[in-house]
Write a structure and sequence with these properties.
By secondary structure, the chain is an alpha+beta fold. The model has no long low-confidence stretch (mean pLDDT 97). GO terms for molecular function: oxidoreductase activity. Pfam families: EthD (PF07110).
């Protein structure tokens, strides 16, 4: 399984961020071909105390490298990426992982 993971730091305006994420961005993400599942994790605490490094961690799961690569090249993914850069460029880090 291949995953695209988005790590979001806390936005200045949490309400506006969540509204855009849930009403605009997530529907765009869910149109990406080959996407098996999206898991949105809201970070609630740090076990070390203090403010957590991240506000939200989102996992987008794909069956394998072939479906992941095709998804990343799709017009639907380009639309989601353009939207992401428009509302979260300064607070998001993207990583690609492979489950073992």
């Amino acid at each position: 399984m291949k995953k695209l993971i988005a790590l979001y730091r806390k936005p200045d305006d949490v309400e506006a961020f969540l509204k855009h994420y849930n009403e605009v961005h997530l529907p765009l993400v869910e149109k990406v071909p080959g996407l098996l599942r999206t898991i949105v994790n809201r970070v609630t605490a740090s076990p070390m105390g203090g403010e957590p490094a991240f506000f939200m961690i989102v996992e987008m799961q794909y069956a394998d490298a072939v479906s992941f690569d095709a998804a990343m090249k799709s017009p639907e993914n380009r639309a989601a990426g353009k939207d992401l850069m428009g509302f979260a460029r300064d607070i998001v880090t993207l990583v690609v992982t492979e489950a073992e």
